[in-house]
UniProtKB/TrEMBL annotation:
Coiled coil start-end: none
Ribosomal protein recorded as keyword: no
Keyword Transmembrane helix: yes
Gene for this chain: gb17944
Pfam families reported for this sequence: ENOD93 (PF03386)
TM annotation in the entry: 60-80, 92-111
Keywords associated with the record: Membrane, Transmembrane, Transmembrane helix
Identification of the protein by name: Early nodulin-93-like
Length: 149
């Protein structure tokens, strides 16, 4: 098998490897062209927006985790004191696991929903005007009440 040299002076053993290198070079050139159109100010603005959104999501998740901790701790601790089965089978580690699992789930669910809602709102704000009008004009006849927005 003859060894061929690629564009960087390295030896490649297969024509497939040369095709991959050619595609990678074309891709890198395309990325450079696209990145040339992006200004530093717009990147800084997007970064600031992303930081603000993540901060809002973190705060919302922390609030939900605090509420969920209290909401799950009260019945868990009460049941361990009052119910014979819970008293016999749920030790302090199990109680802590129940409470922390609920708090963790609440944090991640609320933070994820907040990030998605903020992303949806910001993508709608940046959309062109012809895409913002989402009302359906239809065939001219009124829609039944359950189809109205």
């Amino acid at each position: 098998m003859a060894l061929a040299k690629d564009g960087n002076g390295r030896q490649s053993q297969s024509p497939r490897h040369r095709v991959c290198l050619g595609a990678r070079v074309r891709w890198a050139h395309t990325v450079k062209i696209k990145m040339a159109n992006v200004s530093r100010a717009s990147l800084d603005q997007k970064l600031a927006l992303a930081k603000r959104c993540s901060r809002e999501a973190t705060l919302a998740g922390a609030k939900a985790a605090a509420v969920a901790t209290v909401a799950s701790a009260i019945p868990t601790l009460a049941s361990v004191r009052m119910l014979p089965w819970a008293k016999a089978n749920i030790n302090p580690t199990g109680q802590a696991l129940i409470i922390s699992t609920v708090a963790g789930m609440a944090y991640f669910i609320v933070a994820d929903k907040k990030i998605l809602s903020l992303a949806r709102r910001h993508s709608f704000e940046e959309a062109p005007e012809h895409l913002k009008n989402t009302s359906f004009q239809g065939a001219g006849r009124p829609h039944p009440a359950f189809f109205r927005p």
